[in-house]
Amino acid sequence: MMIAANMLPALGLGPQIDNCYGSCGYGYGLAPDQKRKLENPIDEVQELQDTYKRRKIQNEKMKLVCGSSYCPKDNPEKPLGEDAHFISHFAQTIGVADGVGGWARKGIDAGEYARGIMNHAKETATHMAAVGATPVDARKVLNEAYAYNADVQGSSTACILSFDKERGSLHAVNVGDSGFMLFREAMCVYISPTQQRRFNCPYQLGNHVHSDRPDAAEEFEVEDIMPGTLSYSGQMGCWTTCLRELATTIATLALFNSEDEDNVTPFQMAAEKAGVEHVGGKIDDITVVVAIVVASST
Q1: Number of CB atoms found within 10 A of residue 231's CB
Q2: Beta strand pairing status for 180-184 and 187-191?
Q3: Domain PPM-type phosphatase, which positions (predicted)?
Q4: Of 31, 80, 81, 92, which shows the fewest CB atoms inside 10 Å?
Q5: Residue 275 in 3-state DSSP?
């Protein structure tokens, strides 16, 4: 799981976000050519205030600051688990991948494929930023990471996000059932859709003839990302330490819920919908990356 936030997140659902859309149809919010009709002066005043706020923020510099936590499931034969992730503050890019565990029946560690994808993605994003190719193109990162991983067996999901500091926008590509959630003003305003062929069978990148290729990835862009009342003060280490702690808290809660057979989880509900008997959560590796947009003086 990945959380991209422009304020410290809290669980819950809130107002929908404008200008949030993907390649396979619009998500929450208004389509670019759709205008909301203002019914009363209060709405008009709020609209003017929001416009002023966006203009003011466009003149501010912003930065994505991140922290992460990883809890591999208990398996002495695979102490590294099958998940992988990366954070590049320099490239303003983050990513997660989940190796598909079914390869274990063939003696293949899908974690190696996931780690390869994420290592190559970080190298590619960092190189793009170093040569001035900013903002980093998340789809190009995915394409190149996939190409560099051509000799590795296995398969994995993948989700990569990059932040455009100049425009204040978030660009994401996603294959499978990894994904991201967007929070604004302590409310969850967007959850990326999953790609599955059937229950518990996600789209997956790989070199096998039946695996998916990067062109299967859905692409998303979220505009008007704002730092809100947050400000960037002090060392980056202060932020990353806090975000690591937050990511660890979320991962620990997810771990508890995955092992709680008395808790009706989203995985259990999805199983029931597919006609599969299952109680509780899904015991699996857990990866959480928390990213927050802050105003920055640099």
Answers
A1: 12
A2: antiparallel
A3: 68-293
A4: 31
A5: coil
